[in-house]
Amino acid sequence: MNIFRDFTARVTSAVEVILAARDSAPVDLSRIVVEPPRDAAHGDLATNAAMVLAKPLGLKPRDLAEAIAGRLRDDEDVASVEVAGPGFINLTLAAPYRAHALKSLIQAGSDYGRSRIGGDLKVNVEYVSANPTGPMHVGHCRGAVVGDALANLLDWGGYDVTKEYYINDAGGQVDVLARSAFLRYREALGEEITIPEGLYPGDYLKPVGTALADVHGRTLLDMPEAEWLPLVREAAISAMMLMIRDDLALLNVHHDVFFSEKTLSGENGGKIGATIADMEKKGFVYSGTLPPPKGQLPDDWEDREQLLFRATDVGDDIDRPLVKSDGSYTYFAGDVAYFKDKFDRGFRQMIYVLGADHGGYVKRLQAVGRAISGGTASVDVLLCQLVKLYRAGEPVRMSKRSGDFVTLRDVVEEVGRDAVRFMMLYRKSDAPLDFDFQKVTEQSKDNPVFYVQYGHARAASILRNAAQDLPALDLSGAALAGADLALLDDAGEISLQRRLAEFPRIIESAAEAHEPHRVAFYLYELAAEFHQQWNRGKDLPQLRFINPEQPQLTAARLALVHATKLVLSSGLLVLGVDAPEEMR
RNA sequence: GCACCCGUAGCUCAGCUGGAUAGAGCGCUGCCCUCCGAAGGCAGAGGCCAGGGGUUCGAAUCCCUUCGGGUGCACCA
Hints:
Shape: globular
Mean pLDDT: 92
Oligomer: single chain
Distance between the termini: 35 Å
């Protein structure tokens, strides 16, 4: 259950009763929100109902607030109601209702926090989509983790999510890959090779060369490039994709669909041609010239007529070329066809997780969305800013030229998957991120990964100890849900319950905003609150979770521990981070 | 030149789609603990939310503008 939703309904119906009595014109009630008050001293819930409705009704906010408050006081689940400030209505929940909320949390178990807000809308989350030309490097981590966690989050929010990877296997860079692999093939046959500037120098192509030699012997050597290139390219791309999938698996990232760019072209232009024809019918395609780019003019700029997408009709700054000077389709034309393909597969929301250097791409993708879907599908682009690497405060140097970059594998093997995933999510994606190899493996409060996981492990440890100290106590969720939860009346316990009650709300708002980091921050706060309550028991033994003298109270407190463990575990699951039973 | 992102405590960052006295961690200061359920606890100082204007009952949040930082700007992928 979601107590905020529950009380939004109650406040709304209280307002409706008042409106009916006044016989006033209908007003918009959708702006009424019930949320946790900023200051815990204000109670469990606060609503702005009186403030948003006062003006349309021509009333003073505080007067209206009093009227609403009066009705809410009749609600037996409400212990007290206060009108405060400019017209807030603050509610304190009655103990039985609080107990009921905690009980239903425990009964919902691992489903607690799941929402139907998405209404099964088909959402396509495209992320990573790294070129299949080499292993994943550390720069890919962030997009991979953010996309993956966002997809999980949307699933929790009740969306029908597909995780997708777009394989750029059609452009010039895969020909470069093929030539690089061909060199390694010659090397495998015993030739001395030097790798010229512009080809990929990495060792990771050696196995591809060896495999080619095994399969083809020396036969490729006698072929012209036009013949061997497609063969080598296919082999190299599939080897690279295997490697990339392995790398992603290290981060526990698994896509549902790998979509090949190549499949978009074919006879008569294939899907690209068909899509352009379709757009032409809708009036979005014309032949024309573009104004030269402002600022620095490219050396080889030529003013020529070309096939253009009328993107300026749908929000873009400039019309976009669909055909290159050599007559082939632009990369962008492929994107348009790919969008059409997604749309035809039934997706109505396309989310792209891209690197910050793709900022210039946002408007044109949104333009494509509008043109193809006619406004029936939405497009959101998440730009992940750079990750700066540090080691104990010192920047880690990376040189791309020498091929001496830090790979994803390096990072995961050094600090572990959980640290990488959590830290990549412990920041808004549009803010740059510092990643310190040393800090993320520290076992202390400064390290949020550790702190949250330790919260879960501590809860598990408490339950283990309880099983040992009080063997008669049934610690199953079903049994704990039946404890007398109204006994939880310590301020810290109530505060913890409030925090637990927020979880469904966090999931919904994070899913709608496409901001998985909110879950990470929430978990940190929840863990902090839990550790804090544990610490209070250090000085005040009567606050300890386990108190053998008072089995009823202990059962109630263990239910709270159980609930905390449950929510930490679910939240970590959304982030794709392990919830350990003990720390090692 | 244009577009997009960012600017919140000394540092690194949250701020729940416009709400009350703007929060957390680090660092700093002061107490406590270091015998309980390992990898500390409690408290304090620290802010013109970059500057200016606007919108309204109400702005860190929305709009305009200035400044400062980042990214991208036919045909490449």
